[in-house]
Amino acid sequence: MGLATALLSAGCARPSEDRAVRDTRVGQAEAEALKVEVEGGLASVRTLGSGALELWSQAPVLTVRVTAGAQARADWLFTVRNTMPGAALVAVDESGEALAVEPLPDAHPTVKAWRVALRPGATARLTVAPPDWDSRTPFRFAALADVQEALSKVGDIYTRLNEDPSLRFIFFAGDLTEYGTREQLEEFQQRLEASSRIPLYATLGNHETFTDDARIYQQLVGRASQHFTFQGVHFSLVDSGSSTVDPLVEEQLDGWLEEARDAVHVVAMHIPPLDPVGVRGGG
User: Using CA atoms in the order 272, 261, 57, 195, what is the torsion angle rounded to 10 degrees?
Assistant: First the structure.
């Protein structure tokens, strides 16, 4: 092996390392004397400014830690997109005292908005969840992947899913779009809101990495790897979009597997880490 080949091999040894590192910053933002951190990175911060905080949710339950500086405004519009129908907001300060919350009319089953009275110089916890999130009753979800070039037709699938009122959310294993551009990802989200009555929680696929190593995906959608629970069931979405699983993600997955050792655990990724056929790049 020549020097150039050795250097190339070393440079490609962890092709998804940068994405794994960037994942740790998803759900964090700071502006207008307000610091926001979504626990577990389970939402992307779409807007923070002019008295508005908007998130794109990637889980049925979100907890957001909000720290308001002394100069922060008190009245904020808090919007969560891609959330569960029937989700409610509970806002408390560090002592557990409830903050004033005003629900606003729903624009769509998966879009919720509230007016929240924050306290300058204090920290608040905002929790968004459906009322039955911690029950142990059976539920159903849909599994989907590989929309890619069929983006203009995906509404047909949502229409079929809408016919089943027992479905709570869609669990998506990557390739939302063909090239992962901003325009395509925004179109995916617009079509989802226009046609689906339930949210969609996703990991990326190799097609999302075609544009800037999925940076736009992480900005608009959220983490490539994440974990959440709903009604006692654990769900893990794992980034294998580069035909491998980065050691940082493997470490996370080990923790999630241990956490769910005695529970039902659903794990999804786009490309299997070990491909017995050998037709994918990392097989």
Answer: 60
